[in-house]
Each structure stands twice: as C-alpha cells, then as structure tokens.
Amino acid sequence: MKVIGLTGSIGMGKSTAARAFRRLRVPVFDADAAVHRLQARGGAAVRPIEAAFPGTTRDGRVEREALRTRVLGDPAALRVLERIVHPLVRKAERAFLAACRRRGDRIAVLDVPLLFETKGEGRVDQVIVVSAPAATQRARVLARGGMTPERLAAILARQMPDAEKRRRADHVVRTGLSKHAAQRQIRAIVRGLSG
Most exposed: 14, 60, 107, 152, by fewest CB within 10 Å? Predict the structure, then answer.
C-alpha cells in the first residue's frame, strides 16, 4: 500500500483536495478531525490538556478558543500542547493505516497540515503539497469567521513557507485556478500511483 502525505499551508485548498481523493474512493485520514475528536467530550486529550492548561476545558471537552488563546504566541505552551496531542494523533493514524491494509487498499492519504514541520514526511511514501498564490490564500483565510490578519500571521509563522513545501514535494497541486483544475490534477496523480 502506498501512503501519501497531503499537506499545505492554511487556506491553500487542502480540504478540497482531500474531498477529491475521497470521491476517487481513496481513504483519507484527517489529522485535524482526529484532533477535534480527541478534544471533544470524552476525548483522550481532554484530561491531560486540563491538567496542563487549567480552565481550558468545560463539560468534559476542550474549549478550543480558550486553549487557542492560551497557546497562541507562546512557543513553550505550544510545545506542551503538541507533546499531549501529537502522540494521540499518531496512534489514530496507525489504526487508520492498519484498517486500510486489512481492507487491501492500494493507496491511503494522510491529510496532515504540519507534515513537514513535524518531520512526518518520513512516515509516507510520497508527499502532495497543495498551493495557491499568496493573495488567494490570504483572501480565503480572512473570509473565515473569527479570523484576523494578526491571527493569520501567527499561524503562518508556525508553518514552513509555501515555496519550501513545494520544493520538497513529490507532487504539487495548484488550487488557485479552479476546483475542477485541482481535481483533474489529483485524478492524474491517483492514476499514476495506481499503475
């Protein structure tokens, strides 16, 4: 089974690319969704997060905005949070890949926003980076509810520059043209991997 890492900076179209893979019946592990589950009511990350960041949980779940406020701009706090969350996400990822192997899937995709930043490229056979022009990225992100230019700047400061991600990628999917164009690129990649 070929394991593909799907990554890209915020607002580059990674979610749209992941949906295109699913439409092609390629299983996709969504690291962000795994984090949400871990932080939801009864999730495995709730207790350790409350222990490390008192007051950031309520009713058995993480208050994401309170936690974000607590760690944004504080590298030491962010490292503590990552030491809690990353091993739990890896465990979910391993379970996903084991299920794909049991089913006999030929390709599986790991949708991981910080793949390069967490040295995750060593866990995959190939990396696909989604990329769009900086102006398109900025417009997409700032259109999201609650997003500010300052918050975007803080997020981008944690992410490897897009040009470096593209340089390291095995495939680059350009998402600044249209969804149809990006889907065509993804279909071609899947055909190449399946052959």
Answer: 60
Residues 6+ apart with CB under 8 A from 52: 80, 81, 84
161 secondary structure, DSSP code: P
- This model's pTM is above 0.70: yes
Cα 167 to Cα 162: distance, rounded to the nearest angstrom: 9
Q: Give pLDDT, residue 89.
A: 95
* Residue among 13, 37, 23, 46 nearest 93 (CA): 37
Beta bridge partners of 58: 61
Which pLDDT band holds residue 195 (cuts at 50, 70, 90)? low
Note the pLDDT tens digit of each residue in 49-69: 999 999 999 999 999 989 988
Kind plus residue range of the DSSP H or E element containing 169? none
